[in-house]
Amino acid sequence: MSATARQPTPATSANAKAAKPGKGGGRRLWFDLHSWVGLKLCLFMGFICLTGTLAVFAAEIDWLLHPQMRVTPTDQHASWGTLVAAAQRAHPDWVLEGLRAPHASHFAAKAQMRRPDGRRRFVWIDPYSGQVTGDTHWFSAHRLLRNTHRHLMIPTKYGVPLVAALSLPLLITLISSLYIYKRWWRGFFSWPRADRPRRLWGDVHRLLGVWSLWFVALIALTGGWYLIESLGGKAPPQRDIALPEPGPAAPADAAAIDRAVATLGARWPALEIRGVEVSPDGGALVLDGQAQAWLVRDRANVAGIDLRDGRLLGRHEGGELGVHQRISEMADPLHFGSFGGWPVRLLWFLFGAALTALSFTGVYLYGLRVADALRSAQRRKPA
Amino acid sequence: MSGKPRGPWALAWHGMGRWRWLWLALLLVWLYLMPGEFAK
Lengths: 383, 40
Prior knowledge:
The complex is a heterodimer.
Chain A: H1 12-19, H2 25-55, H3 58-65, H4 80-90, E1 95-100, E2 109-114, E3 120-125, E4 132-137, H5 141-151, H6 156-164, H7 167-180, H8 197-233, H9 254-267, E5 272-278, E6 284-290, E7 301-306, E8 312-316, H10 323-336, H11 341-380
Chain B: H1 8-15, H2 19-38
Protein backbone atom coordinates (compact mmCIF):
# COMPACT_ATOMS: atom_id res chain seq x y z
CA MET A 1 0.00 0.00 0.00
CA SER A 2 2.69 2.44 -0.87
CA ALA A 3 2.54 5.58 -2.96
CA THR A 4 1.26 5.72 -6.47
CA ALA A 5 2.31 7.28 -9.73
CA ARG A 6 -1.24 7.58 -10.99
CA GLN A 7 -3.00 10.14 -8.87
CA PRO A 8 -5.82 12.39 -9.91
CA THR A 9 -3.73 15.49 -9.27
CA PRO A 10 -1.80 17.83 -11.54
CA ALA A 11 1.31 16.18 -10.16
CA THR A 12 0.67 13.05 -12.19
CA SER A 13 3.22 13.55 -14.90
CA ALA A 14 5.80 15.05 -12.60
CA ASN A 15 5.39 12.29 -10.07
CA ALA A 16 5.31 9.40 -12.47
CA LYS A 17 9.06 9.22 -12.78
CA ALA A 18 9.66 9.74 -9.09
CA ALA A 19 7.32 6.96 -8.07
CA LYS A 20 8.58 4.48 -10.63
CA PRO A 21 9.87 1.60 -8.58
CA GLY A 22 11.99 -0.11 -11.20
CA LYS A 23 12.70 -0.65 -14.83
CA GLY A 24 10.46 -3.66 -15.31
CA GLY A 25 7.12 -2.81 -16.88
CA GLY A 26 5.52 -5.77 -15.11
CA ARG A 27 6.65 -4.58 -11.75
CA ARG A 28 5.39 -1.11 -12.58
CA LEU A 29 1.94 -2.53 -13.25
CA TRP A 30 1.97 -4.37 -9.94
CA PHE A 31 3.07 -1.19 -8.23
CA ASP A 32 0.25 0.82 -9.80
CA LEU A 33 -2.26 -1.85 -8.79
CA HIS A 34 -0.90 -2.02 -5.24
CA SER A 35 -0.97 1.76 -4.92
CA TRP A 36 -4.41 2.23 -6.41
CA VAL A 37 -6.03 -0.45 -4.29
CA GLY A 38 -4.21 0.68 -1.14
CA LEU A 39 -5.01 4.35 -1.57
CA LYS A 40 -8.66 4.09 -2.57
CA LEU A 41 -9.56 1.51 0.05
CA CYS A 42 -7.32 2.66 2.89
CA LEU A 43 -10.07 4.26 4.98
CA PHE A 44 -12.33 1.22 4.84
CA MET A 45 -9.46 -1.25 5.13
CA GLY A 46 -7.82 0.66 7.98
CA PHE A 47 -11.11 0.90 9.89
CA ILE A 48 -11.86 -2.80 9.52
CA CYS A 49 -8.29 -3.75 10.47
CA LEU A 50 -8.41 -1.48 13.51
CA THR A 51 -11.73 -2.84 14.80
CA GLY A 52 -10.55 -6.41 14.19
CA THR A 53 -7.33 -5.73 16.08
CA LEU A 54 -9.19 -4.31 19.08
CA ALA A 55 -11.70 -7.18 18.91
CA VAL A 56 -8.88 -9.61 19.75
CA PHE A 57 -8.96 -8.22 23.30
CA ALA A 58 -12.65 -7.31 23.39
CA ALA A 59 -13.29 -9.56 26.39
CA GLU A 60 -10.48 -7.89 28.32
CA ILE A 61 -11.84 -4.43 27.40
CA ASP A 62 -15.24 -5.43 28.78
CA TRP A 63 -13.53 -6.87 31.86
CA LEU A 64 -11.99 -3.47 32.52
CA LEU A 65 -15.31 -1.70 31.94
CA HIS A 66 -17.58 -3.97 34.01
CA PRO A 67 -16.74 -4.87 37.62
CA GLN A 68 -19.41 -7.62 37.45
CA MET A 69 -17.04 -9.60 35.21
CA ARG A 70 -14.12 -9.57 37.65
CA VAL A 71 -13.51 -12.33 40.17
CA THR A 72 -10.67 -13.45 42.41
CA PRO A 73 -9.52 -17.02 41.79
CA THR A 74 -9.61 -19.50 44.67
CA ASP A 75 -8.92 -23.22 44.98
CA GLN A 76 -12.59 -24.15 44.89
CA HIS A 77 -14.62 -24.37 41.67
CA ALA A 78 -18.40 -24.23 41.53
CA SER A 79 -20.02 -26.97 39.46
CA TRP A 80 -21.98 -26.34 36.25
CA GLY A 81 -25.15 -27.18 38.12
CA THR A 82 -24.39 -24.56 40.78
CA LEU A 83 -23.74 -21.92 38.11
CA VAL A 84 -26.97 -22.68 36.24
CA ALA A 85 -28.97 -22.69 39.48
CA ALA A 86 -27.41 -19.38 40.59
CA ALA A 87 -28.40 -17.66 37.32
CA GLN A 88 -31.93 -19.05 37.43
CA ARG A 89 -32.35 -18.19 41.11
CA ALA A 90 -31.14 -14.62 40.60
CA HIS A 91 -33.66 -13.99 37.78
CA PRO A 92 -36.48 -16.53 38.00
CA ASP A 93 -38.59 -14.74 35.36
CA TRP A 94 -35.77 -14.60 32.80
CA VAL A 95 -35.07 -17.43 30.35
CA LEU A 96 -31.57 -18.91 30.51
CA GLU A 97 -30.36 -19.30 26.92
CA GLY A 98 -26.88 -20.54 27.66
CA LEU A 99 -23.97 -20.44 30.04
CA ARG A 100 -20.35 -20.09 28.99
CA ALA A 101 -17.20 -20.96 30.93
CA PRO A 102 -15.05 -18.03 32.10
CA HIS A 103 -12.81 -16.45 29.46
CA ALA A 104 -9.79 -16.64 31.81
CA SER A 105 -8.98 -17.19 35.47
CA HIS A 106 -10.03 -13.71 36.65
CA PHE A 107 -13.26 -13.68 34.64
CA ALA A 108 -16.78 -14.57 35.76
CA ALA A 109 -18.82 -17.20 33.91
CA LYS A 110 -21.35 -15.68 31.51
CA ALA A 111 -25.02 -16.62 31.39
CA GLN A 112 -27.03 -15.28 28.48
CA MET A 113 -30.60 -14.64 29.60
CA ARG A 114 -33.72 -13.21 28.00
CA ARG A 115 -36.03 -10.94 29.92
CA PRO A 116 -39.83 -11.18 29.64
CA ASP A 117 -39.80 -8.11 27.32
CA GLY A 118 -37.54 -10.03 24.92
CA ARG A 119 -34.34 -8.12 25.68
CA ARG A 120 -31.15 -10.00 26.43
CA ARG A 121 -28.85 -9.52 29.42
CA PHE A 122 -25.63 -11.16 30.47
CA VAL A 123 -25.64 -12.45 34.03
CA TRP A 124 -22.18 -12.93 35.55
CA ILE A 125 -21.43 -15.69 38.04
CA ASP A 126 -18.29 -16.19 40.09
CA PRO A 127 -17.03 -19.63 38.94
CA TYR A 128 -15.30 -20.20 42.27
CA SER A 129 -18.02 -19.29 44.76
CA GLY A 130 -21.03 -19.81 42.50
CA GLN A 131 -22.43 -16.37 43.44
CA VAL A 132 -24.01 -14.03 40.89
CA THR A 133 -21.86 -10.89 40.66
CA GLY A 134 -24.31 -8.83 38.59
CA ASP A 135 -25.65 -8.42 35.10
CA THR A 136 -24.78 -6.25 32.12
CA HIS A 137 -26.37 -5.05 28.92
CA TRP A 138 -26.24 -7.38 25.93
CA PHE A 139 -24.43 -4.65 24.03
CA SER A 140 -20.80 -4.48 25.06
CA ALA A 141 -17.38 -3.53 23.73
CA HIS A 142 -17.19 -7.07 22.40
CA ARG A 143 -20.52 -6.72 20.58
CA LEU A 144 -19.62 -3.26 19.27
CA LEU A 145 -16.26 -4.39 17.90
CA ARG A 146 -17.51 -7.71 16.62
CA ASN A 147 -20.56 -6.34 14.82
CA THR A 148 -18.60 -3.43 13.40
CA HIS A 149 -15.75 -5.61 12.23
CA ARG A 150 -18.02 -8.32 10.84
CA HIS A 151 -20.74 -6.36 9.09
CA LEU A 152 -20.56 -2.69 10.07
CA MET A 153 -23.89 -3.23 11.85
CA ILE A 154 -25.53 -3.29 8.42
CA PRO A 155 -27.94 -6.27 8.05
CA THR A 156 -25.65 -9.28 7.78
CA LYS A 157 -27.00 -10.22 4.35
CA TYR A 158 -25.29 -7.11 2.94
CA GLY A 159 -22.76 -6.22 5.61
CA VAL A 160 -20.88 -9.52 5.79
CA PRO A 161 -20.17 -9.79 2.04
CA LEU A 162 -19.27 -6.09 1.95
CA VAL A 163 -16.62 -6.44 4.66
CA ALA A 164 -15.50 -9.92 3.59
CA ALA A 165 -14.97 -8.62 0.04
CA LEU A 166 -11.99 -6.71 1.46
CA SER A 167 -10.17 -10.04 1.40
CA LEU A 168 -9.78 -9.62 -2.36
CA PRO A 169 -7.95 -6.28 -2.29
CA LEU A 170 -5.97 -7.58 0.68
CA LEU A 171 -4.87 -10.53 -1.42
CA ILE A 172 -4.05 -8.22 -4.33
CA THR A 173 -1.87 -5.99 -2.14
CA LEU A 174 -0.15 -9.07 -0.75
CA ILE A 175 0.65 -10.63 -4.13
CA SER A 176 1.62 -7.33 -5.73
CA SER A 177 3.95 -6.50 -2.83
CA LEU A 178 5.96 -9.64 -3.58
CA TYR A 179 6.55 -8.39 -7.14
CA ILE A 180 7.24 -4.80 -6.15
CA TYR A 181 9.64 -5.45 -3.31
CA LYS A 182 12.72 -6.93 -4.95
CA ARG A 183 14.30 -9.69 -2.89
CA TRP A 184 11.79 -9.12 -0.11
CA TRP A 185 13.13 -12.11 1.80
CA ARG A 186 16.20 -10.05 2.62
CA GLY A 187 14.08 -7.37 4.24
CA PHE A 188 13.34 -9.02 7.58
CA PHE A 189 16.25 -7.31 9.31
CA SER A 190 16.53 -4.10 7.27
CA TRP A 191 16.20 -1.46 9.95
CA PRO A 192 14.44 1.73 8.73
CA ARG A 193 16.78 4.51 7.62
CA ALA A 194 15.78 7.78 9.24
CA ASP A 195 17.61 10.25 6.99
CA ARG A 196 14.41 11.59 5.37
CA PRO A 197 10.71 10.97 5.98
CA ARG A 198 9.98 9.28 2.68
CA ARG A 199 12.77 6.76 3.12
CA LEU A 200 11.95 6.21 6.78
CA TRP A 201 8.26 5.51 6.15
CA GLY A 202 9.01 3.47 3.04
CA ASP A 203 11.36 1.30 5.11
CA VAL A 204 8.83 1.02 7.95
CA HIS A 205 6.13 0.03 5.45
CA ARG A 206 8.35 -2.65 3.91
CA LEU A 207 9.59 -3.96 7.26
CA LEU A 208 6.06 -4.26 8.65
CA GLY A 209 5.01 -5.78 5.36
CA VAL A 210 7.55 -8.60 5.22
CA TRP A 211 6.98 -9.59 8.83
CA SER A 212 3.22 -9.53 8.28
CA LEU A 213 3.14 -11.53 5.06
CA TRP A 214 1.93 -14.72 6.75
CA PHE A 215 -0.68 -12.84 8.74
CA VAL A 216 -1.98 -10.91 5.72
CA ALA A 217 -2.26 -14.22 3.85
CA LEU A 218 -4.10 -15.81 6.78
CA ILE A 219 -6.55 -12.93 7.17
CA ALA A 220 -7.12 -12.66 3.42
CA LEU A 221 -7.79 -16.41 3.11
CA THR A 222 -10.09 -16.66 6.12
CA GLY A 223 -11.81 -13.44 5.04
CA GLY A 224 -12.19 -14.95 1.57
CA TRP A 225 -13.82 -17.95 3.19
CA TYR A 226 -16.31 -15.68 4.97
CA LEU A 227 -17.08 -14.11 1.59
CA ILE A 228 -17.74 -17.55 0.08
CA GLU A 229 -19.95 -18.45 3.04
CA SER A 230 -21.89 -15.21 2.79
CA LEU A 231 -22.53 -15.84 -0.90
CA GLY A 232 -23.99 -19.29 -0.34
CA GLY A 233 -20.97 -21.55 0.12
CA LYS A 234 -21.74 -22.27 3.76
CA ALA A 235 -20.90 -25.74 5.04
CA PRO A 236 -23.91 -27.89 5.99
CA PRO A 237 -24.65 -27.59 9.71
CA GLN A 238 -23.75 -30.38 12.08
CA ARG A 239 -26.65 -32.72 12.82
CA ASP A 240 -28.83 -31.50 15.65
CA ILE A 241 -29.13 -33.52 18.81
CA ALA A 242 -32.76 -34.57 19.12
CA LEU A 243 -34.13 -33.36 22.45
CA PRO A 244 -37.22 -34.85 24.11
CA GLU A 245 -40.61 -33.18 23.63
CA PRO A 246 -40.52 -30.03 25.78
CA GLY A 247 -42.79 -29.80 28.81
CA PRO A 248 -43.91 -26.65 30.67
CA ALA A 249 -41.14 -24.14 31.51
CA ALA A 250 -39.25 -25.01 34.68
CA PRO A 251 -35.80 -24.38 36.15
CA ALA A 252 -33.25 -27.16 35.76
CA ASP A 253 -32.21 -29.28 38.71
CA ALA A 254 -28.60 -28.46 39.70
CA ALA A 255 -27.90 -31.95 41.01
CA ALA A 256 -29.19 -33.54 37.79
CA ILE A 257 -26.89 -31.24 35.75
CA ASP A 258 -23.89 -32.25 37.87
CA ARG A 259 -24.78 -35.94 37.46
CA ALA A 260 -25.06 -35.45 33.70
CA VAL A 261 -21.68 -33.68 33.56
CA ALA A 262 -20.10 -36.53 35.56
CA THR A 263 -21.70 -39.15 33.28
CA LEU A 264 -20.44 -37.38 30.20
CA GLY A 265 -16.99 -36.96 31.74
CA ALA A 266 -16.78 -40.74 32.17
CA ARG A 267 -17.91 -41.46 28.62
CA TRP A 268 -16.00 -38.64 26.90
CA PRO A 269 -13.01 -37.80 29.12
CA ALA A 270 -11.30 -35.66 26.46
CA LEU A 271 -14.16 -33.16 26.39
CA GLU A 272 -13.37 -29.92 28.20
CA ILE A 273 -16.81 -28.40 28.68
CA ARG A 274 -16.96 -24.72 27.68
CA GLY A 275 -20.68 -24.13 27.63
CA VAL A 276 -24.06 -25.57 28.55
CA GLU A 277 -27.61 -24.97 27.37
CA VAL A 278 -30.61 -26.13 29.33
CA SER A 279 -33.92 -26.77 27.57
CA PRO A 280 -36.65 -24.35 28.72
CA ASP A 281 -38.46 -27.13 30.56
CA GLY A 282 -35.25 -28.04 32.44
CA GLY A 283 -35.41 -31.57 31.07
CA ALA A 284 -32.39 -31.73 28.78
CA LEU A 285 -28.86 -30.43 28.73
CA VAL A 286 -26.65 -29.71 25.72
CA LEU A 287 -22.92 -29.33 26.39
CA ASP A 288 -20.14 -28.23 24.08
CA GLY A 289 -16.42 -27.59 24.29
CA GLN A 290 -12.99 -28.63 23.14
CA ALA A 291 -11.82 -32.22 22.66
CA GLN A 292 -9.28 -33.97 20.43
CA ALA A 293 -10.00 -32.08 17.19
CA TRP A 294 -7.71 -29.09 16.75
CA LEU A 295 -8.87 -25.70 15.43
CA VAL A 296 -12.59 -26.14 15.81
CA ARG A 297 -15.17 -24.01 17.55
CA ASP A 298 -16.63 -25.22 20.84
CA ARG A 299 -19.89 -26.13 19.15
CA ALA A 300 -18.13 -28.72 16.98
CA ASN A 301 -17.90 -31.03 20.02
CA VAL A 302 -21.37 -31.38 21.42
CA ALA A 303 -23.39 -33.83 23.48
CA GLY A 304 -26.97 -33.91 24.74
CA ILE A 305 -28.19 -35.58 27.93
CA ASP A 306 -31.71 -36.18 29.20
CA LEU A 307 -31.68 -34.76 32.73
CA ARG A 308 -34.60 -36.90 33.87
CA ASP A 309 -32.96 -40.26 33.31
CA GLY A 310 -29.32 -39.38 32.51
CA ARG A 311 -29.62 -40.90 29.02
CA LEU A 312 -27.13 -39.71 26.38
CA LEU A 313 -29.26 -38.17 23.62
CA GLY A 314 -26.46 -37.79 21.12
CA ARG A 315 -22.85 -36.85 20.66
CA HIS A 316 -20.92 -35.24 17.81
CA GLU A 317 -17.16 -34.80 17.68
CA GLY A 318 -15.16 -32.22 15.75
CA GLY A 319 -13.04 -35.01 14.27
CA GLU A 320 -16.08 -36.50 12.52
CA LEU A 321 -16.72 -33.40 10.41
CA GLY A 322 -16.40 -33.45 6.64
CA VAL A 323 -13.77 -31.35 4.82
CA HIS A 324 -16.21 -28.54 4.04
CA GLN A 325 -17.41 -28.36 7.65
CA ARG A 326 -13.88 -28.57 8.94
CA ILE A 327 -12.76 -25.61 6.82
CA SER A 328 -15.75 -23.70 8.13
CA GLU A 329 -14.84 -24.60 11.71
CA MET A 330 -11.19 -23.65 11.26
CA ALA A 331 -11.89 -20.19 9.88
CA ASP A 332 -12.89 -18.56 13.19
CA PRO A 333 -10.05 -19.83 15.41
CA LEU A 334 -7.53 -18.90 12.72
CA HIS A 335 -9.05 -15.49 12.01
CA PHE A 336 -9.51 -14.60 15.70
CA GLY A 337 -6.35 -16.22 17.07
CA SER A 338 -8.51 -17.88 19.70
CA PHE A 339 -6.93 -21.32 19.58
CA GLY A 340 -3.89 -20.96 21.81
CA GLY A 341 -4.61 -18.74 24.80
CA TRP A 342 -3.44 -15.21 25.37
CA PRO A 343 0.04 -15.57 23.77
CA VAL A 344 -1.55 -16.34 20.40
CA ARG A 345 -4.08 -13.56 20.82
CA LEU A 346 -1.30 -11.13 21.70
CA LEU A 347 0.47 -12.15 18.49
CA TRP A 348 -2.76 -11.61 16.53
CA PHE A 349 -3.19 -8.22 18.18
CA LEU A 350 0.35 -7.13 17.29
CA PHE A 351 0.09 -8.29 13.69
CA GLY A 352 -3.39 -6.80 13.44
CA ALA A 353 -1.87 -3.50 14.56
CA ALA A 354 0.85 -3.96 11.93
CA LEU A 355 -1.79 -4.54 9.26
CA THR A 356 -3.63 -1.39 10.35
CA ALA A 357 -0.34 0.52 10.28
CA LEU A 358 0.38 -0.78 6.77
CA SER A 359 -2.85 0.85 5.55
CA PHE A 360 -1.95 4.21 6.98
CA THR A 361 1.80 4.23 6.34
CA GLY A 362 1.05 3.37 2.70
CA VAL A 363 -1.25 6.33 2.37
CA TYR A 364 1.18 8.61 4.15
CA LEU A 365 3.90 7.49 1.73
CA TYR A 366 1.62 8.40 -1.14
CA GLY A 367 1.27 11.90 0.30
CA LEU A 368 5.04 12.22 0.77
CA ARG A 369 5.71 11.13 -2.78
CA VAL A 370 3.22 13.59 -4.23
CA ALA A 371 4.67 16.36 -2.06
CA ASP A 372 8.17 15.49 -3.34
CA ALA A 373 6.95 15.46 -6.94
CA LEU A 374 5.24 18.81 -6.51
CA ARG A 375 8.41 20.31 -5.08
CA SER A 376 10.48 18.93 -7.98
CA ALA A 377 8.00 20.31 -10.49
CA GLN A 378 8.17 23.68 -8.74
CA ARG A 379 11.96 23.69 -8.96
CA ARG A 380 11.90 22.84 -12.68
CA LYS A 381 9.49 25.69 -13.43
CA PRO A 382 11.31 28.59 -15.22
CA ALA A 383 11.58 31.70 -13.04
CA MET B 1 -3.77 21.94 -5.86
CA SER B 2 -2.46 25.43 -6.57
CA GLY B 3 -1.92 28.03 -3.85
CA LYS B 4 -0.66 27.12 -0.41
CA PRO B 5 1.41 23.94 -0.10
CA ARG B 6 -0.39 20.92 1.34
CA GLY B 7 0.92 18.33 3.74
CA PRO B 8 1.19 14.60 2.91
CA TRP B 9 -2.10 13.68 4.61
CA ALA B 10 -3.98 16.40 2.73
CA LEU B 11 -2.46 15.24 -0.55
CA ALA B 12 -3.39 11.63 0.21
CA TRP B 13 -6.92 12.69 1.14
CA HIS B 14 -7.16 14.50 -2.19
CA GLY B 15 -5.74 11.46 -4.00
CA MET B 16 -8.52 9.22 -2.73
CA GLY B 17 -10.92 11.00 -5.03
CA ARG B 18 -14.57 10.02 -4.86
CA TRP B 19 -13.83 6.92 -2.81
CA ARG B 20 -13.36 8.98 0.34
CA TRP B 21 -17.00 10.10 0.17
CA LEU B 22 -18.13 6.51 -0.21
CA TRP B 23 -16.26 5.50 2.95
CA LEU B 24 -17.49 8.54 4.83
CA ALA B 25 -21.06 7.67 3.81
CA LEU B 26 -20.49 4.14 5.11
CA LEU B 27 -19.19 5.59 8.38
CA LEU B 28 -22.39 7.63 8.73
CA VAL B 29 -24.48 4.50 8.07
CA TRP B 30 -22.52 2.71 10.81
CA LEU B 31 -23.13 5.56 13.25
CA TYR B 32 -26.82 5.66 12.31
CA LEU B 33 -27.27 1.92 12.89
CA MET B 34 -25.39 1.72 16.18
CA PRO B 35 -28.26 2.85 18.49
CA GLY B 36 -30.39 0.01 17.09
CA GLU B 37 -27.77 -2.49 18.23
CA PHE B 38 -27.75 -0.93 21.69
CA ALA B 39 -31.51 -1.36 21.94
CA LYS B 40 -31.51 -5.13 21.35
